[in-house]
From TrEMBL:
Main location: mitochondrion
Membrane topology, from the record: Multi-pass membrane protein
PROSITE patterns per record: SOLCAR (PS50920)
Domain of life: Eukaryota
InterPro entries xref list: MCP (IPR002067), MCP_dom_sf (IPR023395), MCP_transmembrane (IPR018108), Mitochondrial_Carrier (IPR050567)
Keyword Transmembrane helix in annotation: yes
Keywords: Membrane, Mitochondrion, Repeat, Transmembrane, Transmembrane helix, Transport
Organism (species): Durio zibethinus (Durian)
Protein family membership: Belongs to the mitochondrial carrier (TC 2.A.29) family.
Protein name: Mitochondrial arginine transporter BAC2-like
Solcar repeats: 13-92, 103-196, 207-295
Single GO MF descriptor: transmembrane transporter activity
Amino acid sequence: MDFWPEFLASSWGREFVAGGFGGIAGIISGYPLDTLRIRQQSTNSGSSLSILRRVVATEGPAALYRGMGAPLASVTFQNAMVFQIYAILSRAFDSSVSATDPPSYKGVALGGVGTGALQSVMLSPVELVKIRLQLQSTSYATIQSASAHTGPISVAKGILKTEGLRGLYRGFAITALRDAPAHGFYFWTYEYTREQLHPGCRKSGQESLRTMLIAGGLAGVASWVCCYPLDVIKTRLQAQSPTSPQKYNGIIDCLHKSVKQEGYRVLWRGLATAVARAFVVNGAIFSAYEIALRCLFNNGNIQTENTI
């Protein structure tokens, strides 16, 4: 019973809990847009609006949240770990900065790269399960009822049974290649933007809610734009399963065949949906994180400016 008070009394514990709140806010706010992005990336199914209309008409609005259980359960923990690891690494990469000052921009960027590389170990299986569920339509589930999955646990068990542990980490290499630089851009953009919008806030922690939302949203957009072609390749590789024809034999083969068959535009398909989702989700993540952090560090008293 003494664990939680002691845990929350530490800086690491507060970063962890605040990061978890950010993860919950991000998943709930952006999951429908993520489902549309995945469907756009996997096949040439039309615009996000046409996919939205088709999914709602044929499968119902609940289909937009299919597969959310796995990310909601895991991303809360994953996001908590990401912010905690980032808080440690951003200072470890530049020890010349005083403990009372915010990390340098160099430490922020390098800490973000290290955080992205580490978190891909946890994220890769979760995204594999999520993608398989998001691409499973109601019509497919009706026709192939024996092989259809009812939830994330069912998908994970099926992958382990047919492909083993290695199958659960299908797409791990491309996930790491995507996440390491993306997180460097992510944290650097957030810290730089919030300071430009509200000078001195990195040290005082007194930025407005509007600053949190805008800086967080732009950080999400920057991280997606810099790595989006890798995300398209990752989606296509992880969408493959032993029960379907193997179209791609690896990252290079997937890139070559995708460009050859559909042109270079395929590498940016769904970008508008991803950018819109990124702005909403990451604005919510950083706002929830910063507000929770202030509550924890100030014993429940929010010391931020809440003006919009």
